[in-house]
Amino acid sequence: MTIKPSFLAALAAGAFIATPLAAQDMAAEAPVAPAADAGCELHVWPTHNYLGLNMGLLSGFGVVGVLTDMAVHEGRVASVKDLMADYLGPDVQMAELDKAGLTRTLKLDGYRIVLEEPTPFKEDFKAHPELKARWKAMNAEIKAGRRLTDSKSGCYAELITTHIFYHKAALYGSNLFTGWIYREFGDKPQAKKTATGQVKNPLELFPPKSAENVQVAKDELRDAFSKDFVEYVQKKVMP
């Protein structure tokens, strides 16, 4: 049995946040009373949640093969996560989204971007239960369709980055998966539109194999992230 990388990516990230699997309309609610001169706002959450999976030829032998591969490559995956955190930290994510034309791509011209605290690294939950509790509360608000902030803006939207996931497989090569949740509220307290999903783009140079290749590996990783965002909007938000 061959396990495809798209399934493994969903498996690695899916338990982290429970949301609708496709864009959907929510029931209309009473408008939020707008604050004076609030303007239109797009609230953006980058992420600290870096995931990695390196699968060899054993992955074609079902779940046992997958688990064996994960054990063999555990150290290598850990180093890849560290590199992603270094090369594609929250500030870099925001810079890449800006270069990709964040509000223009989402057709939110004129919206003011409000930067929020990055979504946490899932593996920190055990050592920091307060992070887990905060994320659980945030996830409950997302599932309920409510705004994550106290903003009273009469034209309000949210973009939440849920994970950045490096996946390497002998049969499929290397890819960067990125997951987002996009929600539009307008002047309502509950989301009128929710789009959840992840997309991927190939990697050939990341992680770098020598010191001379560090910059080109950084550039490739960041470019894949930008392409992920544009494709996510095209495939998950706009249809």
Number of helices: 7
Order of helices and strands: HEEEHHHHEHEEEH
- Report the structural category: alpha/beta
Q: Kindly, what is the distance between the CA atoms of the first and last residues, rounded to a whole number of angstroms?
A: 33 Å
The average pLDDT score comes to 82
List low-pLDDT spans.
Answer: 14-28, 33-37, 56-75
Describe the global form.
globular
Number of E-state strands: 7
Beta-strand percentage range: 15-25%
Radius of gyration: 19 Å
| DSSP helix fraction | 25-40%
Major sheet size, sense and barrel closure: 7 strands, mixed
- How many domains, as an integer? 1
Walk me through the structure:
The protein is an alpha/beta fold. The chain has one domain (5-28, 36-237). 37% of the residues lie in helices and 23% in strands. It contains 7 helices and 7 strands. The chain has helices spanning 5-14, 62-72, 74-87, 90-99, 102-105, 129-144, 214-237; strands at residues 24-25, 41-45, 50-55, 112-115, 156-169, 173-186, 193-203. A hairpin with a 3-residue loop joins strand 5 (156-169) and strand 6 (173-186). Helix 4 crosses helix 7. The relative contact order is 0.21. Mean pLDDT is 82; it is low at 14-28, 33-37 and 56-75.
